[in-house]
Amino acid sequence: MTDNLVASTNSDVLPADATPNPVQRTFESALWFTRMLALVAVVASVIMAMGAFLMATIDVVYLVQGFGAYSDLSLDGAEHAAVRAKLVAYIVKALDGYLIATLLLVFGFGLYELFIRNLSNAERSVVAPRLLRFESIDDLKDRIFKLVLLLLVVQFFDETLDLTFHTPQELILLGAGIFLIGAAFFVSNLKFGKGH
Predict the structure, then answer these.
(1) Are 45 and 105 spatial neighbours (Cβ–Cβ below 8 Å)?
(2) Is residue 62, in this structure, part of any structural domain at all?
(3) In this structure, is residue 31 part of a structural domain?
(4) Fewest CB within 10 angstroms: 81, 95, 146, 191, which?
C-alpha cells in the first residue's frame, strides 16, 4: 500500500537520466535566464557605491580644510574643543560613507558571483580569495551583517559625540551600549553549525 502511494506521488518527477520534453526545456531555460535580473541590483549597488565613495571623499576634503583651523594656536579652549568636535564628526562621517560604499560593493560582487558567474579578473587576483568568498546566500548575508554591524557602531559613536552627560545613569547607559556592541561583535563571530 505505501509502495503504491510513494510510486503515485513520485510519478510526476523525472528520473535524473530522463530527457525533458521541449516545453520543459524551454521553460527551464527561461526560468534559469531570470537570474540575470540580479544584474539590475549589481549595477545599482555599484552606482550607489560610487556615490557613497564620492560623498565620503568630499567629507575628507572638508576634514583636511578643518585641520588648518585646528592648528590655529590663537583659539581659546572652548573654540579649540568645538573645532576638534567638528573634525571628529567629519572623520566619523567619512568612515561611515566608506563603510557604506564597501558594503554596497561587497553586495554587488556577492550577487554577481552567486547568480551570474565568477569574476574572471578576480581569479588572477591575490585579493580575491579574501574579498570574494561567496559560496552561498548565507555567506553573503554573513559578510553584509558584519559590515552593517560595523556601520551601526560608527553611527553609535557619531551619536555619542553630541551627548552631554548630566547624571551617572546616563554614563551607565553609555557603558551598557558599548557592552552591547561588544556582545554583538562576539556573537557575530560565533559559528553556529556551519562547520567552520
Answers:
(1) yes
(2) yes
(3) no
(4) 191
Whether residue 100 is contained in a domain is answered as: yes
List pLDDT tens digits, range 11-47: 555 565 667 788 888 888 888 888 888 899 999 999 9
Encode pLDDT of 135-179 as tens digits: 777 777 777 787 788 778 777 877 777 777 788 888 888 888 888
Residue 122 included in any domain: yes
Count of domains observed in the chain: 1
Range of the domain at 147: 36-162
CA distances from 177 to 3, 99, 152, 160, 188 (A): 60, 21, 12, 10, 16
Distance from C-alpha of 145 to C-alpha of 141, rounded to nearest angstrom = 6
Evaluate if residue 134 carries a pLDDT over 90. Answer: no
Q: Which residues contact 189 (CB under 8 A, 6 or more apart)?
A: none
Residue 85 CA to residue 144 CA, distance in Å, equals 30
Instruction: Tell me which residue has cell 524551454.
Output: 26
CB 146 within 8 A of CB 103: no
* 133-146 per-residue burial string, b: 16 or more CB within 10 A, e: under 16: ebeeeebbebbeeb
